[in-house]
Design a protein that fits this description.
253 residues, alpha+beta, 5 helices, 23% helix, globular
């Protein structure tokens, strides 16, 4: 007796034996940084944070991003090498250029054409440069840092702002950043899972709001979404994402 195996049957036969590719959950795609406070962060908040990361382009695209450039409130221009930690900051008002590595704290500084070499002065200026980077980068990439080291997140349910309903998320901090006493409340689109507003509280203990600002005008930059040129005229402008830039930008004035 002859047995005829059709192409369809063969495909089914082989397919049944082939290993199935596992599909990662959003949580598996977006592992928390070492030191993220999992124990005190509630599951609903973590689930929302993972949904935000997915909506912003996903952890894989974020991890692959190399150079991010932007202007902060018209005060200064920054270029960040996300992979190595190198940062170039040009502050026009005080004619200062900082070349600092935000991971190591090392670097160079020039003020009004003169490089600062005195060790104590240089260290103070490099510490200032790192503080500038921490502040200015948070205004641009905060949604990617919700599960960072030292962060605790709480889901606060639905909230109304400017006539619309949002999912709300609270971020508090411990022993991280320049101002760990701060607190932020994020207003997240219920359908698109994008942050639409953020509220700043100088002290989590006092629960007194400092401001609430839009986080809007999202654009795709090389596979990730960033909010720039916002409707209130504040925050980051002139945003660019590149995969290659000259090394001299981070070593030469």
């Amino acid at each position: 007796m002859k047995y005829i195996i059709t192409a369809c049957a063969l495909t089914l036969l082989l397919g049944s034996c082939a290993p199935k590719e596992s599909v990662k959950t959003l949580a598996e795609q977006n592992p928390a940084a070492d030191g993220f406070n999992v124990a005190d962060s509630d599951p609903a908040a973590i689930q929302l944070a993972d949904s935000i990361m997915h909506a912003m382009g996903g952890r894989e695209n974020w991890d692959k991003t190399r150079f991010i450039s932007w202007n902060f409130f018209g005060r200064r221009d920054l270029i960040w090498d996300k992979q190595t930690g190198r940062v170039r900051i040009e502050s026009a008002p005080d004619s200062t250029i900082y070349l600092v590595n935000e991971k190591t704290g090392e670097g160079r500084v020039r003020i009004k054409g003169t490089e600062i070499t005195e060790p104590d002065s240089l260290k103070n200026l490099l510490d200032k440069a790192k503080s500038i980077w921490i502040n200015d980068s948070y205004w641009l990439v905060m949604p990617y840092k919700i599960k960072d080291t030292g962060v605790t997140i709480k889901y606060m349910g639905e909230d109304t702002l400017k006539g619309n309903r949002y999912n709300s998320l609270i971020l508090t901090f411990k022993e991280v950043g320049v101002t760990p006493q701060n607190m932020y409340k994020l207003y997240v689109d219920k359908h698109e899972k994008l942050v639409r507003y953020w509220a700043y509280y100088p002290s989590a203990a006092e629960d007194k709001m400092g401001f609430v600002r839009p986080w809007d005008n999202y654009q795709n930059y090389g596979g990730i979404l960033l909010s720039a040129d916002r409707s209130d005229g504040g925050g980051p402008k002139n945003v660019k994402v590149d995969q290659t830039l000259p090394d001299a930008l981070f070593s030469e004035f």
